[in-house]
UniProtKB/TrEMBL annotation:
Residues 12-64 form the DUF1707 domain. This is DUF1707 and DUF2154 domain-containing protein. Transmembrane segments: none annotated. It holds the Pfam family DUF1707. It comes from Nakamurella antarctica.
Length: 218
């Protein structure tokens, strides 16, 4: 009887969820100061070029998140749910990452903003509209990384924005200034724009949006 060959975990094909999970960990590491912008750019390029798990695992070995991403070294790698879209409560989806690589990603309508959301635009564009978003807590954070791309964040009038991003041969522009009360929900925006741009702006009154707030994510 011939045994059926078993594919080593490292030779297994990587899924979009695997790549997205690693990209999220790398962006978090950059926001915490563990990786430089150049290191992040280099590793992200390797993430999106990866075809197997063996190509992804080495990209996080020097980061605290590694043990959570790849809990069983040398054994079958447990597949965890994608950090992307999942349903929570009612009919509102929650989104933890928004990534655009040489393309576009738009988030709007009724959705739930988690405590932390990572947006990455690599030679592409990400648009995040939190006008009708439900916050998971009184203070949430968006880490925006624009590498030769753009991230646009639209906020409603009743949300206070605290921006601490930096621009390197690019712009991190907060146009959302308002006199919000001390009890207003807080949206913190950090990150970096390298030869790209991050813009935060206030939503303009839109009668159609008010009458039809339940537009789905695109």
């Amino acid at each position: 009887m011939t045994d059926t060959p078993i594919t080593p975990p490292g030779d297994l094909r990587a899924s979009d969820a695997d790549r997205e999970r690693v990209a999220h960990a790398l962006n978090t590491a950059m926001a915490e100061g563990r990786l430089s912008v150049d290191e992040l750019s280099e590793r992200l390029a390797s993430v999106y070029a990866a075809r197997t798990l063996s190509a992804l695992v080495p990209l996080t070995t020097d980061l605290p998140e590694h043990g959570h991403l790849w809990p069983a070294v040398g054994a079958a790698v447990a597949q965890t749910p994608s950090p992307g879209l999942s349903r929570v409560g009612g009919n509102y989806p929650v989104l933890k990452t928004a990534i655009a690589v040489m393309g576009g990603r738009t988030i709007r309508g009724r959705w739930k903003m988690p405590a932390r959301l990572t947006a990455v635009a690599l030679m592409g564009g990400v648009e995040i509209d939190v006008t009708h978003a439900q916050f998971s807590s009184g203070e949430v954070t968006i880490t925006a990384v624009a590498l030769m791309g753009g991230v646009e964040i639209t906020v409603p009038e009743d949300v206070r924005v605290i921006c601490s991003g930096i621009g390197i041969m690019g712009a991190f522009d907060d146009k959302s200034h308002c006199d919000c009360g001390p009890n207003a929900p807080v949206l913190r925006v950090n990150g970096v724009a390298v030869m790209g741009g991050v813009e935060i702006k206030r939503a303009k009154p839109d009668p159609e949006s008010v009458n039809h707030p339940d537009k789905q994510l695109r």
